[in-house]
Every structure is written in structure tokens, then in C-alpha cells.
Specification:
The structure holds two protein chains of two kinds. Chain A is an alpha+beta fold. In chain A, 37% of the residues lie in helices and 26% in strands. Chain A contains five helices and ten strands. In chain A, strand 2 (57-60) and strand 3 (65-67) form a beta hairpin. Chain A is elongated. Chain B has one domain (2-135): PCu(A)C copper chaperone (Immunoglobulin-like), CATH 2.60.40.1890. Chain B is globular, with a radius of gyration of 15 Å. In chain B, strand 5 (65-76) and strand 6 (79-85) form a beta hairpin. Helix content of chain B is 4%, strand content 54%. The chains are: A alpha+beta, B mainly beta. Chains A and B meet through helix 2, helix 3, strand 7 and strand 8 of A and strand 2, strand 5, strand 6 and strand 9 of B.
Chain lengths: 214, 147
Amino acid sequence: MNPTSSIYRSGRAGLIASLMLAGAAIAWLASGLVGIKPVAPLRATVLPEGKPLPEFELLDAEGRPFGRAAFTGRWSLMFFGFTNCPDVCPVTLGQLAMARKRLAEDDPGARLPEIIFISVDPERDTPAVVRAYLAPFGDGFNGLTGNAAELAVLTGSLGIFHAKGAPVGDSGYSVDHTVAVLLVNPQAELKAIFGPPHDVAAIAHDVGLLMGRE
Amino acid sequence: MARAWCLVSALVLAACNGGDAPPLSATDTRIFAPLPGSAMAVAYLTIENRSGEVIELDFFESPDFERVELHETEIQNDTARMRRLAALTVPPRDEVMLTENGKHLMLIGPRGEAGPGRRVKLHIGKSGNVLLVIEVELQGRDAGDSN
């Protein structure tokens, strides 16, 4: 027997055995992956580590003090706007109401995020005005307003821009503002950001995912 | 034919009595009632120009509101800014959409009750001449309004 040929045959057998082993391993891994749902958020920018909200004190829609501690123990979706806003704000609040409704339909009985509307126009938006403005959007909404200094503590910490904008009517004005939606976790930490344009299905999917439903 | 146009609540032109097909029409008109605590309604619609001429619309009013203004929302770097526009240009044989987070009409200061269901009129034109009269019911806002 040719020793070279023997070594060759032996090496080829080893190679075949290795390939079979590798194939079996791949098949085993693949079978394990079947049925696993994709877990990536569709639209949200997720912070790897939650950013704690600052200490602040505003008033809720009932005129009661509302600060960082009120965010603990539940998930919240925050949106900054103003009640004289006829376009972006009601459209976004309607989208958030719809996303909350979808979450409720997908998992009846599960806890839902509270939607917190924070006025960037405290000059005109009293708690009573904010309460009335939010009423048509249904359950699960709360509104915050208060003095400009306390508002600045919150907006400054979260990078929310707001400033008086173009005149409207004889004496009114618009307010330019950030339109991102922020997701806050039950530890009162900013966990994710949804930038515009907002998509109801993506918000519902990502909030459900981040709340640990999948 | 021109008479039929006049009877359509959503689109009527001052030129109806002239017998020609109106150059402007409005579709997909939605006017949302002011939310409680607010004195502003908002109108979204699509305006089509069937003529061969550019039409510059600079006249907006309503007998049901103290004033009507044309505004545009621009969103850049996650920030929304709204600015007033002097006129709306509708190119020949084309259409312009007034829609959410874009160009829209603000109806300010309702005269009387302005809740959902009330019928209101909106006049749109050029240099004080009404070219389009729209009459629709005010809509309410709720969780079903959004995409």
C-alpha cells in the first residue's frame, strides 16, 4: 500500500466526519432558533441604560403636585405640547391613544402605559385647561403644567426644546417644540425615544416589547 | 351641470352661474372642532385646480369663525415649528393637499357653539373673491382619528 495514499484516505475521512459534525451542529442550532420572535424595536431608539428623570414638581390635570416619584411603578409615554396647538399635538395625542388601545386589544388585562402630556405653554395652560383638552382622548391620559422654572428642569434634563413661535390671530402665538415621544420605565428612567413621524403600529409594538410582553 | 356643482356641499365655485365647470374643487375635507379649552379648529382638505392657469389663493374666511389663517407645520430635527403663509399656490391641472403636520387652515374664534356635528362654512378665494365654498360638519377628536 502506498503510505501517501493511506494518509490521504485517512485525511479525507476525517474531513468528511468534520463536515458531518458541523452540519449536525448547524441543524441543531437552526432547530433551536425556529419559533423565536424578532425582538428588535421597529422605531424606538432604546437607551442601553435608563436615564433617571430629574427631581421636579409640576401640577397634574387635577392641580395636584406631580414629580419624579409619580412615575415610579408604571410605564409612561411622555409628550410635550400645548393646548392651543391645533395640528401636531392633537394628532400625536390621537396616535398615542390609538397605540394604547392596540396594546389593550393585543393583551387584554395587561397593564398599559399612562400617557403624560406636558404643557410647554404654562402661561396659558392651567390644570383645568389641560384637563379639558385631554378629555376627548379617553382613559389613560394625564396632563402636567406649572411654572416655567420647574418645567425647565424637566425639559433641560431631557433635551426637550420649546420656545414661543409665530403669532397666531390677533394676540395669540404658537410654540415651537420637540415632538418626540419618550418612554419612561417604572424606575422613573427615560428608556426609549420615538422620533417623528410617529407610527401607531410601531409605537404599540415597541412599547409592548420594552414593557416585557414578548 | 353647473347647477349640480352648486348643490354639492363640499365644493361650489362663484363661477357656478357662468355655466363653466368650476376650476377649483375640494375633496377629503375634514374640519376638527376646537378641543375643549381651545378656540381653534383646524381644516384639512385637498384642493384641485382643473384650469390651465396657476391659482394663488390668499383669501380664507368663515362666517362661523372670527378669522381663518393658512399655516404650515414644519418638523425638522424632531422639532415642530408653525408659520403663517400668505397664500397657497395651486398649479394648473394639479392639486395641493392640506394635511396633518403640513399646510392647514386654522379657524380661530368660533362664533357660537363649535362642537362636533355643527355645520360650518369655509370660503376660499383670491383677492377677496370667493372661489370655493365648503360646508361640512365639524368632527371630534378621539383615539380613532389617527393612522
